[in-house]
Design brief:
211 residues, alpha+beta, 4 helices, 13 strands, 22% helix
């Protein structure tokens, strides 16, 4: 629209021409907002602000979440997993002994989701599990929760769950979300050498239950 006096281009919200001061014939006073509409707008803004703050807090917490001390020193495969909501059951495999280590190909861990295996010579009767965390750490742990004596677990999202009771833990920090605060699968140190994961035999065979 243009000013009828001087032809200056006007916006609908301009009541007067900025050049000559002539009244804008197309200007219409905005309708007043009802108290109910104002209340709805305020509630919407508060909900959006709350969601935004919650998202920022969760994102910051996720970035700053600490690893379990043993997991912090574990090797990384260079990439993490993408947590999904499908339940990933453990898969039992056969491993071998090389010199003084239990050894397993890293490919079996990265492809298998959650693998479970035993001391090939049966000296340690508690099985071992291995998985890759969302940030790329390989976790090896003694597969037992002493409170319910379960020796099997499964992954779901970014948590590891007991297969026999409601207990579950964050797979990197091992903070508990249910009961069994202390009795998560106990992490043990391992290393990677030329695509092979090596777990010291003495660590596995000297491990004892926590209760």
């Amino acid at each position: 629209m243009k000013c009828t006096q001087c032809g200056t281009q006007l916006a609908a919200i301009q009541k007067y021409c900025p050049q000559c001061g002539t009244a804008n014939e197309s200007f219409a006073e905005p309708l007043p907002i009802s108290p109910q509409a104002q209340k709805r707008m305020l509630i919407t803004k508060l909900l959006l602000a709350t969601a935004l703050v919650s998202g920022i807090v969760y994102f910051a917490f996720t970035l700053t979440r600490n690893y379990h001390p043993v997991i912090a020193d574990q090797p990384s495969v260079g990439y993490g997993t993408t947590p999904g909501q499908n339940k990933i059951q453990s898969r039992t495999i056969t491993v071998r002994i090389d010199k003084n280590d239990i050894v397993v190909d890293v490919e079996l861990i990265t492809a298998g989701g959650l693998i479970r295996f035993f001391d090939p010579e049966g000296i340690q009767t508690v099985p071992i599990i291995a998985y890759v965390t969302p940030r790329g750490k390989i976790v090896t742990a003694m597969s037992i929760s002493e409170s319910c004596r379960s020796t099997d677990f499964y992954l779901q999202g970014n948590t590891i769950h007991c297969a026999s009771c409601p207990s579950y833990w964050h797979m990197e920090s091992l903070e508990a979300y249910a009961c069994c605060q202390k009795y998560y699968p106990d992490p043990i140190a391992s290393s990677i050498e030329r695509g092979v994961l090596r777990i010291p035999l003495h660590t596995v065979r000297n491990w004892r239950t926590r209760v």
